[in-house]
Amino acid sequence: xxxxxxxxxxxxxxxxxxxxxxxxxxxxxxxxxxxxxxxxxxxxxxxxxxxxxxxxxxxxxxxxxxxxxxxxxxxxxxxxxxxxxxxxxxxxxxxxxxxxxxxxxxxxxxxxxxxxxxxxxxxxxxxxxxxxxxxxxxxxxxxxxxxxxxxxxxxxxxxxxxxxxxxxxxxxxxxxxxxxxxxxxxxxxxxxxxxxxxxxxxxxxxxxxxxxxxxxxxxxxxxxxxxxxxxxxxxxxxxxxxxxxxxxxxxxxxxxxxxxxxxxxxxxxxxxxx
Length: 274
Known about the structure:
Structural class: alpha/beta
Strand content: 5-15%
Strand order of the largest sheet: 2-3-4-1-5
Radius of gyration: 25 Å
CATH topology of the largest domain: Rossmann fold
Order of helices and strands: EHEHHEHEHEHHHHHH
CATH class of the largest domain: Alpha Beta
Number of strands: 5
Number of helices: 11
CATH architecture of the largest domain: 3-Layer(aba) Sandwich
């Protein structure tokens, strides 16, 4: 069925702000598709020896054909396939490596090998136009919306969760309010906010311990010993509350400026294919 004009796409580009889960999506593809997965970065195929980079690219695609069906994932694609120039500013070796990669990708579209190229980039406007032509699908992985941000807080800081001593770790969080306050935050930024909020009660315990003398510290250690009947009567970690998350938000700002997010949308309108 999937032959001729119905032949599946051979290349896909995931682009968007940093921290939105492009690499995580690639890992999910590797798990769900059950294909041989090649995770490639610039250090994997770029060599200081003349001619080695082109050989590594060719060997990569030969291995992918041998172990087909396979998926080749190129992370941070702009480091490998930036725009080629004719003013002599680009090194000859880099230009030859890019040409070899383009030739190998052309070979994928002209045969029936079950090889899929998956690429991720934070700077799609820096990619070579010939590379964009070979990446037939170009999909924007944008910043999370209100519903996604709310779900991220629910996963990272679930209300009513307890630790190994049955002490409540998180309570009283208003996820709708937190999702509203974190507009413009990426998934990675929200995780950092949750981590910072979870550390605040721990820092309070450290501050108390630093102010205690040696005698008080030994008594606290005896109370928390597993064989002590009064175990658990020492210091207890306070649960994470809304005030802790507010404090974490004050010192954790979004990593992607609003202007950059608009630039991704503009690029999608001009070059996107989804």
